Amino acid sequence: MNQQASVLRTGRKFDQVLEGAREVFLADGFEGASVDKIAKAAGVSKATLYSYFPDKRMLFMEVVRSVCVQQAENPLDLAAASCGPQEVLRVAAEHVHGVLMGGISLQLFRIFVAEADRFPELGPMFYESGPMVLHGQIRDYLAVAAERGELAIADVDLAAAQFVELCKADIFLRFLFNVDEAFSEAERKRVIDGAIGTFMARYGA
Question: Exposed, middle or buried by CB within 10 Å (0-12, 13-18, 19+), for 10?
Fold first, then answer.
């Protein structure tokens, strides 16, 4: 039986254990997180923690799985929008910032880079439930907008990837490497305006 399938996901303290573990893992990474610290953060005994998760590895994988489920349950239906491309792209750009620079997403990204050899399966799992879903939502909108003649795009898959990268310009790496911990609304708007302007200059009908 798959280890993750054998995790007991019922019981009144399961969510409590998971929340405490997420807090510690995000703060300390996998290697730095101790079972004692996780149990304390969760407000449970080590015996209770082990009754749900026999080892720290399984607990970490469950934390990632829960974040991936949460990401996948956050749909962004751009294709149904009836307003013009610039308005829709602004909504998409703001969502990109939320996904890529949200606290949990960024912290997990850093952990996956550090733990790529130990957990090779988790990076793709996170990517497929978050960034890839977002990419697909933008791609689907671009395909609809191109069909309506609002945009002139031959390769919507590439155009969606390009738009996401434009939304990251100037601020994402600064955020990733802790050069800046936060950005003002004006700074984000500057990047979003630039992303939309550049994209429309290339793909505007």
Answer: exposed
What is the total residue count of the chain?
A: 205
d(CA 174, CA 98): 15
Residue pLDDT, tens place only, 43-64: 999 999 998 888 898 898 888 8
**Token pair recorded at residue 170:** 């100037």
For residue 12, the SS3 value is: coil
Beta carbons of 171 and 68 less than 8 angstroms apart: no
3-state DSSP call for residue 40?
A: helix
Question: Three-state secondary structure along 59-110?
Answer: HHHHHHHHHHHHHHCCCCCHHHCCCCHHHHHHHHHHHHHHHHCCHHHHHHHH
In three-state form (DSSP H/G/I as H, E/B as E, the rest C), the secondary structure along 108-162 is HHHHHHHCCCCCCCHHHHHHHHCHHHHHHHHHHHHHHHHHCCCECCCCHHHHHHH
Report pTM.
Answer: 0.77
Nearby residues of 42 by Cβ (< 8 Å), 6 or more positions away: 13, 16, 17, 19, 20, 21, 49
Q: Distance between CA atoms of 134 and 140, rounded to whole angstroms? A: 10
Nearest to residue 153, comparing CAs of 97, 83, 205?
205
On whether the CB atoms of residues 149 and 203 are closer than 8 A, the answer is no
Of residues 100, 130, 82, 109, the one with CA closest to residue 192 = 100
| Alpha-carbon span 68 to 132, nearest angstrom | 12
pLDDT digits over 188-202, tens only?
999 999 999 999 999
